[in-house]
């Protein structure tokens, strides 16, 4: 298994999966358990230092890959990177004006929310956007005739979903504050 692979192998290859946005999560979970059972550091407690170090490195690498493939936004960003389309979070890529306007509307709606029902309504709108952009990612990353071009198109979709992931935390905090 891992002896034939290097630590820098891509996550999809590590887990024996096709590099696609659509991932069979039960198969990923099963493969993670299988890989961890082979290299878990507890199995190497009585081994020499080199074997224990090897097990620790592989266990960490497997967990890193698992977390990245398990999360749809991280998986999409990773696929974009693998296909040469960097997710620049430092402002290198321009954000479409319509999405900036949508962000401002959502933030304003959250700041003006006075009841749990107001927040739930906003959350439903955000979940709808997440579902819509998730479907768009599947098209861009799995069904585009040119994988590189699809990844470049997917960058803005990934950035939108990254914003919504953070915004969901703001929604959760607002809901907690209203229920306190």
Descriptive notes:
The chain is mainly α and 180 residues long. The protein has two domains: 6-70, Orthogonal Bundle (Helix Hairpins), CATH 1.10.287; 97-179, Monooxygenase. It is built from seven helices and no strands. Helix 2 packs antiparallel against helix 3 (49-70), helix 3 (49-70) packs across helix 4 and helix 4 (72-82) runs antiparallel to helix 7.
The 3D shape can be described as globular
**What is the number of helical segments per DSSP (H or I, 4+ residues)?**
7
* Radius of gyration (Å): 20 Å
Largest sheet: none
Q: Please state roughly what percent of the residues sit in beta strands, choosing from under 5%, 5-15%, 15-25%, 25-35%, 35-45% or over 45%.
A: under 5%
Low-confidence stretches: none
CATH architecture of the largest domain: Up-down Bundle
What is the total tally of β strands? Answer: 0
Secondary-structure-derived class: mainly alpha
Termini gap = 51 Å
CATH topology of the largest domain: Monooxygenase
A few lines on this structure:
The protein has helices at residues 11-14, 25-39, 49-70, 72-82, 97-112, 116-142, 147-179.
List the helices and strands and how they pair.
Layout: H1 11-14, H2 25-39, H3 49-70, H4 72-82, H5 97-112, H6 116-142, H7 147-179
Helix pairs in contact: 2-3, 3-4, 4-7, 6-7
Notable traits:
180 residues, 2 domains, single chain, Monooxygenase
């Amino acid at each position: 298994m891992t002896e034939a692979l290097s630590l820098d192998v891509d996550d999809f290859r590590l887990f024996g999966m096709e590099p696609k946005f659509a991932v069979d999560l039960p198969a990923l979970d099963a493969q993670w358990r299988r890989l961890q059972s082979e290299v878990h550091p507890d199995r190497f407690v009585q081994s020499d230092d080199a074997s224990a170090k090897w097990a620790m490195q592989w266990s960490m690498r497997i967990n890193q890959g698992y977390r990245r493939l398990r999360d749809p936004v991280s998986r999409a960003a990773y696929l974009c990177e693998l296909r040469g389309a960097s997710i620049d979070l430092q402002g290198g890529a321009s954000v479409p004006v319509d999405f900036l306007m949508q962000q401002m509307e959502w933030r304003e709606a959250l700041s003006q929310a006075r009841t749990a029902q107001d927040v739930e309504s906003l959350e439903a709108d955000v979940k709808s956007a997440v579902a819509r952009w998730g479907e768009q990612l599947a098209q861009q990353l799995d069904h585009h005739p040119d994988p590189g071009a699809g990844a470049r198109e997917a960058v803005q979709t990934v950035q939108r979903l990254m914003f919504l992931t953070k915004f969901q935390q703001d929604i959760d905090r607002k809901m907690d504050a209203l229920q306190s």
